[in-house]
Amino acid sequence: MLLPTILVKRLEPIEVIENFVLEVVNKYLGHNVPVEVYYLENLEKPFSLVAGITYTGTGELVVREVSYLSDTNGSEESQLTIQYEGQGFKILAPIFLIITFYGVLITKELSIKIINREVKAYLERVVIYIIGKRFERIKNKLQTLKEVKIIC
Description:
Blueprint: E1 7-11, H1 14-29, E2 35-40, E3 47-55, E4 60-70, E5 75-86, E6 89-100, E7 103-115, E8 118-131, H2 136-142, E9 149-151
Parallel strand pairs: 1-4, 2-8, 2-9
Antiparallel strand pairs: 3-4, 3-6, 4-7, 5-6, 7-8
C-alpha cells in the first residue's frame, strides 16, 4: 500500500522559504483552494501539530500533509501508528507529532470519504503557520495579497 508523504522537512535560507511560500499560496489560490495563514510569535510553549491520517468518526478521513521549513533545525518529530475501524474498513495509519518554536509549516488538508466501497478525495484547504519573529518578513509579503487573511 502506498501512503502519501506525510511530513517533509526542509532547511533553507529564509529567502528560499519566502519564495516557496509565495509560490504555494499563488498556486492554490489560482485553483480556488482556500488558504489560511496564522502568524505566531513569542510562544511560551512550543507549537504542536499532528500530520497524517485521522478519522472523524463520521465515515470521513482527513489527511494532513505537512512541509516544515526553517533556516535551522528547530523542530522535533515523533511517529506513531494508529488503527481506525469503521463502516466496513480498517486502516493502519502513520501520524507524526511535530513540535517547534519557530519555522513555517505548510499543511494541505484533504478529506477522504468512503461511501459504499468508493473512495473520493477532496483538497479542502491549505493552512500556513508562520512561527517566530524571524519569519515576520514572510507574513508581511503575504499581507500584500488581497485573497490571504492573516490570523495573528
